[in-house]
Amino acid sequence: MLKKSPFQSWISLLIFPSLTIILALSIVVQNQAIFSNSDAVMYTYLKNACQGQVGYAYMSNCGNNITFAELEPGDILLGGYPDCAYGRFSHAGIYLGKGQVAEGYVDLGITIQTLDHYHSYSDICLLKVKAPQDVKSKAVDYVRKQEGKIFYPLAFKPGDRWWNCSKIMWKAYYKQGINLTPEADFWIAPDAFYQSPLVDIIAEEGWFK
User: What Pfam families does the database record attribute to this sequence (predicted)?
Assistant: First the structure.
């Protein structure tokens, strides 16, 4: 078996991190408008990361008492905990009807779950997309067809191979001609739906309301 010299090992340890840094810098340089836009997800994430807020925050002991009675298929649910790195909300789901919601998790991929666990979030918001019910039904059908697909937390907007909890519902409505997050950004955060002019707030609860 051919052994590497200490010099070769040292070079190997340096070259890959160096290439990663060069690639990252290249992305930043070519997308300065995004990284300097205070409304962009990447700007928010990097700013919060520098302040020690990384990831989707930690579960708190404070849930919520929101009612789901007004939900209709195609409505959007947002949930979050304090100190989330990418905004007020860390998770999103789309209501399918009959107490079921489609959402995404690392270990389950795109999955269908019951609504109950949304009561555990300290911040929650229910949104109604401004669209006819037949359009919402088509969006729901699209999401159902993606059940079991691969979940990747940093799934960027382009492509249909990898999903995260917010990209799947954005794409479902985008396919119907409704762009809930038209801003130029790499990634879609749950907060983007909350800020969209194409939705109405059904109800919300939380510390940051």
Answer: Peptidase_C92
The answer to whether 96 touches 144, Cβ cutoff 8 Å, is yes
**Inside any domain, residue 57:** no
- What are the C-alpha distances in Å from 126 to residues 95, 104, 129, 147, 203? 10, 17, 10, 22, 5
At residue 3 the predicted structure's pLDDT band, cuts being 50, 70 and 90, is: very low
Give the pair of three-digit tokens for residue 145. 């067809």
Q: Output the CA–CA distances (angstroms, integers) from residue 161 to 68, 90, 98, 99, 172, in the order listed.
A: 31, 22, 28, 27, 14
Is the separation of the CB atoms in 192 and 183 below 8 Å?
yes
Beta strands in 54-188 (DSSP E): 76-80, 91-97, 100-105, 109-114, 123-129, 150-151, 162-163
Tell me if 66 is assigned to some domain: no
Q: Which domain does 165 fall in, by range? A: 76-205
Whether 132 and 195 map to the same domain: the answer is yes
Say yes or no: 104 and 195 in one domain: yes
Q: Which amino acid is at 102?
A: A
Residues 17 and 85 in one domain: no
Q: Which residue has the higher pLDDT, 35 or 190?
A: 190
Q: State the Cα–Cα distance between residues 129 and 114, nearest whole angstrom.
A: 21
Residue type, 171: K
